[in-house]
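Quick one before lunch.
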Amino acid sequence: MSKGLLDNLRIRPRRMRRFEGLRALTEETVLRPADLVQPLFVKEEGAKEPVESMPAVYRFSIPDLLEECRELLDAGIRAIALFPKIPNDLKDSTGTEALNEETLVLRAARALKEVLPELVLISDLALDPYTDHGHDGVLADDGSVSNDSTVEILARMAVLAARAGVDVVAPSDMMDGRVGAIRQQLDEADERETAIMAYSAKFASAYYGPFRDAVGSVRSEEAQPIDKRTYQLAPSNCREALRELSLDESEGADFLMIKPAGPYLDIIRKARESTHLPIAAYQVSGEYAQLHAAAEKGWLDLDACMLESIVAIKRAGADVILTYFAKRVAERLDD
Ligand code: PBG
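Model of the PBG complex:
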């Protein structure tokens, strides 16, 4: 045999990848159903409604939501994040309905906690499902989103959520000082066990489009997507994101979230290295929709891309992953 160029090559990493048993032994990041949170949409009544831009995602009435959560628990998903879609005629410019003790999301929370107390119930805190303009806060006279009056409302929403049985409130609004204000208000209301998952580094992302369909927060005749850049972060800014993360930690957050997840893996990694708090990452509606769309065209393998996209988020440093794929992942990991 002629002398090969690599005859003296002693270090051959491919040895470790030769067959499945060896590959499993050296697997570094392992996805578990218990890492995942399933976001769910609740609506007032009637049969479950598909969300057009999010295949296999539905808006559920409260009875159907209970059934779905039972199935999730059976599949090994122990946590859900709840989002309401309320009728348009309940929306107004200040989001009054958010402070109604009988509002949809609070009724859903009470029903869930009564039937499935072991489920970790996370509830989003923001005004966008309740405002007719679709912003996450109330507007000042000049049309800007008013920070301090929005925070007052969020803190009151947090107490109502805690009383309805929500385990973790998740402010997703990006107002300044809201984590500290919510913590203070919860403690004063004797709701000390309610945790805060802060959407700390939430970017002004174009990937939220399908979600806004799901909660009906933009009227369909509006051609322009709503502009949230006065409160959400610029996609270009990493240091500013880290500053938001450390502020939320100092204000008393129990989890810090980065959102979206896939396009911001560098931020997840940096966050992981700069705090001891659990890091959550939200694989958002647009990340979900794009995989489904490509798979529908036969261009991508949905399950393979789904698992790859989510293991990447965990590998980057996320401990908790919110993803519309949660149930599907749990079902696939099972076999
Ligand atoms: C709003 C909120 C949004 C999402 C979660 N909470 C949308 C927004 O900020 O406009 C997006 C989630 C997703 O796209 O899956 N408070």
